[in-house]
Amino acid sequence: MVDIELVGHEYHYEIENIIKPYTGYIKDASIRSILKGNLCRAEIYEGDNLVSFKEELGNEDQKYTKQLLIRTLYQVLCEFTGVKMPWGFLTGIRPTKIVHEMFENNIPKERIKKQLLEFYDIREDKVELMIKVAEKERGILEKNKADEISIYIGIPFCPTRCLYCSFTSYAIDHREQQVEAYLEALEKEIAFGGKYSSSKTIRSIYIGGGTPTSLNEEQLERLLMLVNQHFNVKDAEEFTVEAGRPDTITKRKLELLKQYHVGRISINPQTMNEETLLRIGRKHTTEDIVKVFSWAREIGHSNINMDLIIGLPGESSRDVKNTMDKIKALEPDSITVHTMAIKRASRLRESLEEYTLTQADEIEEMISITSQGAYEMGMEPYYLYRQKNMLGNFENVGYCKPGKESVYNIEIMEEKETILALGAGAITKVVDPKTNKIERIPNVKNVEEYINRIDEMLLRKQKGLKDLDNDF
Ligand code: SF4
């Protein structure tokens, strides 16, 4: 059992996030994190014996002092367990933000590297990855214009709920009426979004969820027509629709996506192993994936992403190798490789004792199989993020062929541009590019509530945008 005591501060969240990946390595210990004036100290006790401690002196800069507090704790945990984390004491979901900040302050690359290695204690290969990704992202972010925004539209329905899912998503079966009511409410929000964006340039549009292609053909066409009617789709640099689950895709839907100017789609196998697909509740086969992928190519979709997950229950490195070999044969334009995360609202979390989770060293091997596979397909990493409770405390990486970077993925990660978000659970983020300050305007998560309270959502958005955007 691990006892944690905070003295002189209340950074519970940050301290717990540092300790969490170490809980498997510590049997019985008491941990104290102490802030006294600017002095940061961490201690580990076994019984009454102090077995490890670290101290560092902060200064008036609260952010820096807080970092030192977390760093001292990380250092005692490393010393006590003999285990270092690949991302050092970084716990945030957007590691590249630190690099962008340093780029903006004109810090030379070599000094950035040194800081990441020595201060944050990040492993060298992860430092290289961070810098490579940040440089790629810069090329996209530098093109952001002052009047530019991106649009997100959420469709919170899926055919079934995957084992690991924690998104706002409802199994679509027997929800005919609710889906219709949802589209009606969404139509109001899209019309509002159209008005708001009429004086702006739209850089990217992303329809995600859930699985937007769970809508039937008529519903999908209605949605695409609405988006085309209210937004300047043709001039947007990118228009993506997640066609995530192959069991929702028909030839007609792929044709509709093409007809309504969708330039990028995502067909997400997660794995190319039959048994795993069953185990995670996907209700489709690997053959279905190959079939819909070839339909998409036949119909002319020339920018197709595929999402994969490593560390799925029951999978070994050999299974991941098999997945990569099959993906390579399909030649997608980009892949996004997620490391399995045990999310709070997932079925997996509720039934964790039924599964054996993959250990960190095997996840590491899986990461190298997928990154090697991506390089062999001519792809490079272009975006990166982390989540809480990831196996081995690793990362998610998007790889793409040259010129196939997803603008939306970069914008949502780096938060340098306003994203107007529509639908249940969608959170609009208004970014002030001068100060990098971000204000959030959330919609309610629950679909029923979203439908019933749509007018209130619209008022909330209108008021929020009026307060935050001088041009509106
Ligand atoms: S397809 Fe995605 S959103 Fe839908 S249940 Fe599976 S993980 Fe969740």
What does this 3D model show about the protein?
This protein has 472 residues and is an alpha/beta fold. The protein has two domains: 83 residues, 2-Layer Sandwich (Double Stranded RNA Binding Domain), CATH 3.30.160.100; 280 residues, TIM Barrel. 41% of the residues lie in helices and 21% in strands. The protein is built from 16 helices and 17 strands. The chain has a nine-stranded mixed β-sheet with strand order 13-14-12-11-10-9-8-5-15, sandwiched between helices. A four-stranded mixed β-sheet has the order 1-2-3-4, with helices on one face. Helix 3 crosses helix 5, helix 6 runs parallel beside helix 7 and helix 8 packs parallel to helix 10. The longest helix is centred in the middle third of the chain and has 22 residues. The model has no long low-confidence stretch (mean pLDDT 95). The chain binds iron/sulfur cluster. The site of iron/sulfur cluster (SF4) has 11 residues, from loops. InterPro entries: Coproporphyrinogen-III_oxidase (IPR034505), Elp3/MiaA/NifB-like_rSAM (IPR006638), HemZ (IPR023995), rSAM (IPR007197), rSAM_horseshoe (IPR023404), rSAM_sf (IPR058240). Its EC number is 1.3.98.3. One of its GO terms (molecular function) is 4 iron, 4 sulfur cluster binding.
